[in-house]
Design goal:
With about 375 residues, the chain is an alpha/beta fold. It is built from 14 helices and 13 strands. About 40% of the residues lie in helices and about 20% in strands. The model has no long low-confidence stretch (mean pLDDT about 95). The structure holds manganese (II) ion.
């Protein structure tokens, strides 16, 4: 049983190492809402509401809408009366607001942080414990990254065994030509993903994916719009590469629909787009039941959201890599001790709760005016 006294939300804008162009826009910084949930017993849980780039292009929510929804609706619902636990809290959040999964995920991860701190264990133990304490991390190359070849060489030397190319040019032909050129820079044993963020149509996918497969691309992430599940199933059968669903799987219901229509070989499971760790874990369970592989998706989180996702991904029986690269792409963080990477792997934090501590000074430094 816990009772929430108050919730603080702060929008932060963090600098990134280089601009990052993805299918839905260009990131020149990364923004998120840092959430602190305070219990009446004096325990504080940390959470983060985050979408790629901070704007609404990817998931419909933005830092501004998430802060408003949390402040005006979700936080008052949590503070209204004591709760028996996280499940009770999630039900209450779902009654307070439909959808708004990205905003809810921030509060849910803060509640897990509180439960872990109260019991003196990492959040991973609340999900049955880690089966691995390292997660292989994919490196994501933006669509207009200058010196992409040098960046790939650096990241492969740093130990990354997966590379993802974001596709964001006006024409799929241009993207495909660029990737076909860059593939020469990628060692044979590195897994290559292309991600058009749902922006290609079926005829473009039918034309270009087999050529990319022949040149060494292994996975097409969300090549078609999220609604086109039958198209994805056809592409899966004809492209010669694995298809990963990202935008198409945000809920367990989506996961069932994608499984039944055989639209994907892999799910990119993300804590923010699913509304929290428990919901993301449900999607992973559907994937396993359907024989679909789980991949740990990232949303350019700071160390707060990165740890939250890693706590969960590390408990899965099999994980086909993750793209939790936020702390590598950002030049600073909002926690005292950022998460660490070793030889291309993310080390899952082991302290109580999420295992990260807020740096109040940095929170003030990066807080939006
Ligand atoms: Mn994606």
């Amino acid at each position: 049983m816990f009772a929430i006294r108050s919730v603080d939300t702060v929008v932060v804008d963090l600098p990134i190492r280089r601009r990052h162009r993805i299918g839905v826009g260009v990131m020149t910084r990364q923004s998120s809402v840092v959430v602190q949930v305070h219990t009446r017993d004096g325990v504080t849980g940390l959470g983060e509401a985050v979408v790629p780039g901070g704007g609404p292009e990817w998931g419909g929510e933005s830092v501004e809408t998430m802060k408003a929804v949390i402040d005006l609706y979700l936080a008052p619902a949590l503070c209204a009366a004591p709760m028996s636990g996280v499940n009770d809290a999630v039900a209450r959040l779902d009654r307070a607001s439909a959808h708004n999964r990205f905003a809810k995920a921030a509060l849910e991860m803060a509640l897990w942080d509180i439960v872990g701190k109260v019991h003196g264990c990492p959040v991973s133990e609340l999900f049955g414990g880690l089966v691995r304490d390292r997660l292989p991390v994919l490196w994501s190359v933006g669509a207009d990254t200058e010196r992409a070849a040098d960046e790939i060489a650096d990241r492969v030397a740093a130990g990354h065994r997966m590379v993802k190319f974001m596709m964001a040019h006006p024409s799929p032909a241009e993207d495909a030509a660029r990737i076909l050129g860059l593939l020469r820079e990628v060692p044979e044993d590195v897994v290559v993903v292309v991600d058009p963020n749902g922006r290609w149509d079926e005829s473009a996918a039918r034309r270009w994916l087999p050529r990319l497969a022949e040149a060494g691309v292994d996975i097409a992430e969300q090549p078609l719009p999220a609604w086109n599940l039958d198209g994805m199933a056809r592409i899966r059968a004809s492209s010669g590469m694995r298809v990963m669903a990202d935008e198409a799987v945000a809920s367990v219901h989506d996961a069932v629909a994608v499984s039944r229509r055989r639209s994907a070989d892999l799910f990119s499971v993300k804590v923010p787009k699913s509304g929290g760790l428990a919901a993301a874990n449900g999607i992973a369970a559907v994937a396993r039941a359907a024989g679909i592989g789980c991949y740990g998706g990232g949303t350019m989180e700071t160390s707060i959201g990165t740890s939250a996702a890693a706590q969960l991904f590390g408990t899965w029986p099999v994980v086909h890599g993750c793209d939790l690269i936020g702390p590598l792409l950002m030049t600073d963080d909002v926690v005292v001790e950022p998460v660490s990477y070793e030889n291309g792997d993310l080390v899952v934090p082991r302290g109580p709760g999420l295992g990260v501590e807020l740096d109040e000074q940095k929170l003030r430094k990066y807080a939006r005016e």
